[in-house]
Design a protein that fits this description.
Oligomer: heterodimer
Largest interface: A-B, 49 and 46 residues
Helix content of chain A: 40-55%
CATH architecture of chain A: Orthogonal Bundle
Strand content of chain A: 5-15%
Order of helices and strands of chain A: HEEEHHHHHEEHHHHHHHHEEEHHHH
Number of strands of chain A: 8
CATH class of the largest domain in chain B: Alpha Beta
Structural class of chain A: mainly alpha
Shape of chain B: elongated
Strand order of the largest sheet of chain A: 1-2-3
Largest sheet of chain B: 5 strands, mixed
CATH topology of the largest domain in chain B: Beta Polymerase, domain 2
Shape of chain A: elongated
Strand content of chain B: 15-25%
Number of strands of chain B: 9
CATH topology of chain A: Cytochrome-c3 Hydrogenase, chain B
Number of domains of chain B: 2
CATH class of chain A: Mainly Alpha
Structural class of chain B: alpha/beta
Largest sheet of chain A: 3 strands, antiparallel
Radius of gyration of chain A: 26 Å
Chain lengths: 415, 202
């Protein structure tokens, strides 16, 4: 059989490739990817709609609202003290700090000053809540970046802290510890000593964690220069707390607008330089150490006295022992329970420096025992609004690190 | 540094009036001057953080809706509250600040979603907490606490199961009682009276 050969010319390869790509032949479509709403990296129910070009994200649209419970509507329909348990469920990793922020907002519109001992207990609550939240934040962040061991260390410590919370409030998670004008009960006997023991134990663990992460080549590669938030962007998007400070803005409400007598305690505010994922890790680690410093100072100078502003008879419920033996206290207790504390009319906005950022409450009171309008400003809400701008340009695998470093909580974002 | 007070602001912005406040400096601003005010506050007076955007529904009063903004300056560490009344009670609108402060983008979407205030000039004023087809604005005062029956957002599930989004049963819940009326209603029950067990005189 006769065979013929035919020469095939492949021509000018670069020119062909250029022609093909301009016709869209080699380009291919961008891939749409959906992460969440139930996905391990999203730490809750966050959904990300993303568009990928190869491995690079070109578009990201966060979808939130899966945990919306209508807390603001609920608040308008119950008395002030009844709303305290709902604040537990905002940032559910630091319920004690939320309780304090809410109680202080209402006290502000009432013009109520709580006694010194109550202030000290509340600062203690806030700082322990910060330690517990950051311990989880750093631990889970390590896990997101592939360092599982860190989580085991920090979670063990957090567990010890929760035992302390249980002793103080009766609950590990949903503490509901504050009341308008005070706290639910005084600290148990010997509790401060156990807090001190915890402080002594947590610092060596932090050293271990830092040995595992701070100079870890893999961790550095995954976090350094990733998710960089510039100072201007951070401010424009209303970031607060560790996320803002990591971007180099020295803004801490405990220092800048001291409440609860924070100006009496000596502590430093860590501030980052580049605003990348690594800086956010460093800031959180240091904040735990500073909180331990504050806790130790409180233990040293713990004041005596009442834990409630007892002179405010229309706001603070009387002691239980007196309710059953005295008519006046019985009536007072009945009125506060059924109609709520008598809060004067007015508008206030109060923000507290919570572990995740500035948790704000805007309260409009028309007088009486029920808020007219209560707006809750969750710091995680603002952190997540940045994703749309922050994420594009990164690789798919960076998503875990970016989300982990922002340390958000959906309970507070969706309210 | 001297704290900003109302006289400083009114010298620069003569359209402002002072607003009663239990804590920070607060001003009333006409809705049509809001953008001008916010631009000047950000660029000249260093109010660099927009912390919160929200609105209040005053129910039967006029103006019914008031938009409330909280600004903060990281230079002088002061808050400023700006309140702007919506002139229209039926179709409340306010100018959007999202071009000035990107933070306003989500806050305004939330206020639109829950309170029904339209922000003019917002790049994407869609619902954020409720689902896209949700027909109501739940934070308005006339919206009942228990909710209103609405179709399920998932059409395929709704077609198969006939399921709907139902109002929440509120009986015996922790909600405040109306202060007037018969004793059976003075117990802590839902404000929504359709759930109250029975009238006392029956």
């Amino acid at each position: 059989m006769a065979t013929t050969t035919q020469e095939i010319s492949i021509g000018d390869l670069p020119a062909r490739a250029a022609a093909a790509s301009s016709e869209g032949e080699l380009k291919g479509d961008n891939m749409a990817i959906n992460v969440g709403p139930s996905h391990p990296t999203t730490h809750g129910v966050l959904r990300l709609l993303m568009e990928l070009d190869g491995d690079t994200i070109t578009k990201c649209r966060p979808v939130i609202g899966y945990l919306h419970r209508g807390d603001e509507k609920i608040a308008e329909n119950m008395t002030y003290n009844q709303f305290v348990p709902y604040t537990d469920r905002l940032d559910y990793l630091a319920p004690l700090a939320n309780n304090v922020a809410y109680a202080m907002t209402v006290e502000k519109v009432a013009g109520l000053q709580v006694p010194e001992r109550c202030e000290a207990i509340r600062v203690l609550c806030c700082e322990l809540a910060r330690i517990s939240s950051h311990l989880l934040g750093v631990g889970v962040y390590g896990m997101d970046a592939g360092a599982w061991t860190v989580f085991m260390y920090t979670f063990t410590e957090r567990e010890k802290l929760y035992t302390l919370f249980e002793e103080l409030t009766g609950a590990r998670f949903t503490t509901s510890y504050t009341r308008i004008g005070g706290v639910a009960r005084d600290i148990p006997e010997g509790w401060l000593g156990r807090v001190n023991d915890f402080c002594n134990g947590v610092l060596p663990v932090l050293d271990q964690v830092e040995k595992l992460l701070t100079r870890n080549r893999i961790f550095l590669d995954r976090t350094e220069g990733i998710g960089v938030i510039s100072r201007e962007t951070a401010l424009a998007y209303g970031l607060t707390g560790p996320n803002l400070r990591a971007s180099g803005v020295d803004f801490d409400l405990r220092k800048d607008r001291p409440y609860l007598g924070y100006d009496r305690y000596d502590f430093d505010v860590p501030v980052g330089t580049t605003g990348d994922c690594y800086d956010r890790y460093l800031v959180r680690g240091e904040e735990i150490r500073q909180s331990v410093r504050i806790v130790r100072q409180i233990i040293e100078t713990f004041p005596d006295g009442p834990v409630c502003a007892e002179e405010a008879k229309q706001i603070v419920a009387p002691q239980k022992s007196k309710v059953l033996s005295s008519m006046e206290e019985l009536i007072q207790n009945f009125m506060i329970t059924t109609e709520g504390p008598r809060i004067p009319a007015g508008e206030v906005y109060f923000e507290a420096e919570n572990p995740k950022g500035a948790l704000g409450f805007f309260l409009v009171s028309k007088g009486g025992g029920v808020p007219y309008r209560l707006k809750i400003r969750g710091p995680s809400f603002c952190s997540l609004s940045l994703l749309e701008e922050l994420v594009p340009g990164h690789h798919m695998t960076d998503i875990t690190c970016i989300l982990g470093s922002l340390d958000f909580v959906m309970g507070e974002c969706d309210r | 540094m001297k704290a900003t007070d109302f006289t400083d602001l009114v010298q620069r912005f003569d359209f402002l009036t002072e607003r009663e406040s239990a804590d920070h400096l607060a001003v009333n601003c006409p809705a049509d001057r809001l953008l001008e005010l916010a631009t000047a506050l950000r660029d000249e007076l260093a109010y660099d953080l927009l912390l919160d955007v929200t609105a209040v529904d005053w129910d039967a009063e006029h103006p019914r809706f008031t938009g409330v903004y909280h600004l903060y300056t990281t230079e002088r560490h002061e808050y400023l509250r700006i309140a702007a009344n919506c002139t229209d009670d039926i179709e409340p609108t306010l100018p959007s600040l999202s071009t000035l402060y990107p933070a306003a983008n989500w806050h305004e979407r939330e206020t639109y979603d829950l309170m029904g205030i339209r922000y003019e000039g917002h790049p994407d004023l869609s619902r954020i907490l409720m689902w896209d087809d949700y027909p109501y604005h739940p934070l308005r005062k006339e919206f009942p606490l228990a909710g209103i029956e609405t179709p399920l957002p998932a059409d395929d599930v709704a077609a198969q199961t006939n399921a709907k989004v139902l109002p929440a049963p509120m009986m015996g819940g922790p909600f405040v009682a109306p202060t007037e009326g018969p004793m059976s209603q003075a117990e802590p029950l839902a404000k929504d009276e359709s759930w109250t067990e029975k009238e006392e005189n029956q």
